[in-house]
Design goal:
Arc Repressor Mutant, subunit A; 2 domains; 3-stranded antiparallel sheet; 15 helices; mainly alpha; Fic-like fold; 375 residues; two-stranded antiparallel ribbon
């Protein structure tokens, strides 16, 4: 009979210096340089890439939590149309990731308030969890075991009365400038997951902290690194590295995150080049005069790959009739695909952009060991 629960209480890290080897620090530095290079694209290209990578990261992060959204359903949800619960949840994860990351724009320190607000955005539409959204847990939780008992759980986080103090300590650590950005972000993520401060949404918010700290340190200005796609490719190793951190092996997690960043940035750079080339490729596939609504739409699609008629009017400046003409031209060329199957409130997607989301995950997965969990 279960008569007591042993919890894991992580050490306070606010003023502690992790014992990282020179090789690990060099790997972190190389990973950071790759991220900076990825983020250094020109204006329009960078804006489109930022939207693409944010969408990719939130999709993969949600899938780690077994939330699977069809891309067409996600497109419908993004424009406010009726969609599945998984698509709504994934869209909320995108909003939360963007909100948390942008809270650190321009080097703004990470705050507990920003973390709580991102959590509120993540679970605002969740029927079971929205009442506790945006607040730390007030009850004991655990990872693994069953929904009813922590027996055989993989991790039992600290009791809820310890969470506020531990989170204040975590934020103090996250705002330090004496560690490399990659090491700082990796340790912050590991510590957050060890604390597990929320009833639900810990994984997605915890992975979002990595992007937020890259932004605070200036490693990124606009983009996010699709680390979750690497983690998704081998979740067993990812979860083991978090367990290693809880057992005191900080370096193992730092090296893992740094290596994941190297893989993610290399493949994201491939996607960046493909996205930048799409407007010219599309332009060759359509017959339309220079300056037409169709030509203007081709230029805007990498940044706005999911459109309805109102979006097309807004990005092209065309009348409704001309906007419909532009959509028809791009649909005939196979550039846009309609995903609603109805006469009213139609939504179209740029298939090449959406396909690249899946292709990026596939390429990253090919560079990682497939997880036994998904076989």
């Amino acid at each position: 009979m279960l008569d007591h629960v042993e919890v894991e209480i992580p050490a306070r890290i606010g003023d502690r210096t992790p014992p990282l080897s020179p090789d690990t620090l060099a790997l972190c530095e190389a990973a950071g340089q790759g991220i900076v290079a990825l983020d250094a694209g020109p204006g329009r290209y960078l804006t489109a890439l930022a939207e693409f990578l944010t969408r990719t990261e939130s999709l993969a992060s949600s899938r780690i939590e077994r939330v699977y959204a069809d891309l067409d359903d996600l497109a419908r949800a993004s424009l406010g149309e009726e969609s599945s619960a998984s698509a709504t949840s994934t869209l909320a994860a995108t909003r939360a990731l963007r909100q948390l990351t942008e809270s650190c724009d321009g080097g703004t320190p990470l705050s507990e308030r920003a973390i709580l607000e991102a959590h509120a955005a993540l679970l605002a539409d969740d029927l079971l969890e929205r009442q506790s959204a945006g607040s730390y847990r007030t009850q004991q939780n655990w990872i693994g075991g069953s929904d009813f008992t922590p027996r055989n759980a993989a991790h039992v986080p600290p009791s809820p009365d310890l969470v506020p103090d531990l989170m204040a300590d975590l934020v103090a650590f996250a705002n330090r400038d004496d560690l490399t950005p990659v090491a700082l972000a990796a340790i912050t993520h590991g510590q957050f997951e060890a604390i597990h401060p929320f009833n639900d949404g810990n994984g997605r918010i915890g992975r979002g902290l990595v992007s937020a700290l890259f932004r605070r340190r200036g490693t990124t200005r606009r983009t996010v690194v699709p680390l979750a796609a690497v983690m998704l490719a081998d979740v067993d190793t990812y979860f083991q590295k978090l367990a290693d951190y809880r057992a005191g092996d900080v370096e193992s997690l730092v090296r893992y995150v740094a290596g994941a960043a190297v893989t993610a940035t290399a493949e994201a750079e491939v996607s960046a080049q493909r996205l930048a080339a799409l407007p010219a490729q599309w332009g060759e596939r359509i017959v339309a005069r220079r300056g037409s609504a169709a030509q203007r739409l081709v230029v805007e699609l990498p940044e706005h790959p999911i459109v309805d008629i109102a979006t097309v009017e807004a990005v092209t400046g065309a009348s409704r009739a001309r906007a419909y003409d532009a959509i028809e031209v791009l649909q005939d060329a196979g550039i846009l695909q309609e995903v609603t199957g109805r006469a009213r409130s139609r939504i179209w997607v740029a298939a090449d952009v959406m396909d690249e989301v899946a292709d990026l995950e596939d390429r990253i997965g090919a560079r990682s060991r497939p997880s036994a969990r998904w076989r």
